[in-house]
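#struct-queue
[09:14] JT: dropping the first one here, sequence first, then the structure tokens:
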Amino acid sequence: MDLLKPLYNILKTAGSSLGHKHSEETKEKIKAAALNRSEEALIRELLLKLNSSPEQLEHLAKLNSSPEQKARIAKLATAVVVTELVSEVSVEYESLRQAARELKPHPETLRRCIKAQKPFLDKYLITYKKG
């Protein structure tokens, strides 16, 4: 491949990205994928970068906290209880995603902890709410 020097090969050495610089747009896409952010979070971040007005941001916040949205979450989501093992203080969340937003892991990580009945970070026991 190196001997042929193809016209469309953007890398200097085949199989190596040494010396290749990603564009800022590509870097943002990689960061977004790596952090597994929701589409809502990406839109909110984009609006902030575009200097959105406080009214627009307030409108987004209202959409996410509207009674209709909360009813939809309550209908579709399963509540979880997060118990801190040291203090034995429990906090109830409407959904696994809401708990994940607070604790900062990916929701699937918390789902695995629940299934394996193992504490998250050896600090929090997470269970589905009974009833």
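[09:21] JT: and here's the second one, same format:
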Amino acid sequence: MLQEWANQINEQRQSGLNITEWCEIRGMNRKTFYYRRKKLREELVDSLEGSDLPWLPIRDERKPQVVPVRKPKPEFAALPMLDTKGASITVRISGHAINIQNSAEATMVERVLRIVASL
């Protein structure tokens, strides 16, 4: 279900149409579109909260807002080589590594890079 919703959100973004136009063509209520997008965002935040990431914004459901969190200063150190087996890109952030495989779909790479850019 969530994958189908994610596909719809991506389809709308790639269509070049605004949400109202895209929903009219697809016969979808705009409120349904916004609900699904909200649920996908919540699922993403929930999946990141357990990963002990210090930069994760805190969200107060009673009054939606982003509470600024200080980002730690970057530290540069020699890193051990990771076994990337076919990875074409390795992104390291706050002690975590993201390997993007050669076979990754362009939409998945775009999503990962958008998340990384928002950090």
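[09:30] RK: nice, looked through the second one.
[09:31] RK: The mean pLDDT is 76.
[09:31] JT: good to know. The CA atoms of residues 91 and 98 lie 5 Å apart.
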